[in-house]
Amino acid sequence: MHPALLLVAFALDGPAAPSRPLSEPEAAAAVRDAWDDLVAECRAGSLKERGAKAIQAGGETLPFLERTFGKKPKGGHALFISLHGGGGGPAAMNDGQWRNQIRLYEPQEGVVVAPRAPGNTWDLWHQAHIDPLLDRLILSYLVDGTVDPNRVYLLGYSAGGDGVFQLAPRTADRYAAASMMAGHPNETQPDGLRNLPFSIWMGGDDAAYDRNKIAGQWKEQLAALHEADPDGYEHKVVIYPNTGHWMNGRDRAALPWMARFDRDPWPKRIVWLQDDVTQPRFYWLEVPADQAVKGTRIVAAVDGQRIDLTVPADVVKEVTLYLSDALVNLDRPVVVAVNGAVVHEGVVPRTRAAVDASLASRPDPAAVASAALTLPASPPTEPEPAE
């Protein structure tokens, strides 16, 4: 099980959840009840971690600093997760970068959190343990209603910017927008940013590791992706001339730019490219963990009641669709085609079992499905006729 979910797994134990079909109002009530049950079970432990300013997951610890700005809106504060720079060097250097990071950004409204990376290597924010730690950090702000789940933002400077380049495409479904300051993408690609507004802030003279040149290349890549898919790949790239690695605070413009966006947890089109740290779930799609392989690319598109999936069937053998009335009308038949062949046609019932499975997969109150459908990635072959 994903380490971030260990806190909430026991909330879904007990008698088997009923699988009878639910109406849309019954399903909405089931989602609320399931979330309330989870909160009742895990709230005390989660708030204890937050009070200690140290999140635990997978044997790693994520200390963090926090500042709150403005009056809390009815739906909850915005949450800005701000990743520090530094990287390979002594702990004292990274501690200094961490303490500086919490002072860099002051939104008009929101909670700013600066986590301290568990290690002191160059790839502070690249490693696999970062994903569940940040998931659990976000959850700690959701269980008491402090934060709006659709207004969580990711940003980072220098090595923290490297982390944003890595984390944003592979965990885009957690965030409403992301901003990268003065970092380097390494091997990562922008495909997964289809539904995540993404901004780049760079000094024009920041030539170490060709950061400035690569920022210009990403500007071209993002523009090309947006031109080919005008409803996706919202982006902003600012390269300040005659400016080095430190941008003298001009990158603070990223926060009001990000705050314009709310997350859509049920996008009609998904582009999912697995990076070197893989994910079993992305938005409303899930694959078995052993089939989440680096380099595999799945595209999903919803048109009315039809869902088309393009799946590398040589690697991914099955796909689970977590469905909601926010995505399709679950009172009507749903058609699903995989690689052009229809593999399902019919009503997908709303059930409490689907609600619980979705919540166990991703403890996010805005992304809970009320129906689930697991399908083969390849349609069954027709038997050869007998001679």
Automatic annotation (TrEMBL):
Organism listed in the record: Alienimonas californiensis
InterPro entries (UniProt xref): AB_hydrolase_fold, Dienelactn_hydro, Plant_Biomass_Hydrol_Est
The name this protein goes by in its record: Alpha/beta hydrolase family protein
Residue ranges annotated for the Dienelactone hydrolase domain, each copy included: 129-273
Keyword check for Signal: yes
Gene Ontology molecular function terms on file: hydrolase activity
Keyword tags: Hydrolase, Signal
A Pfam family recorded for this sequence: DLH
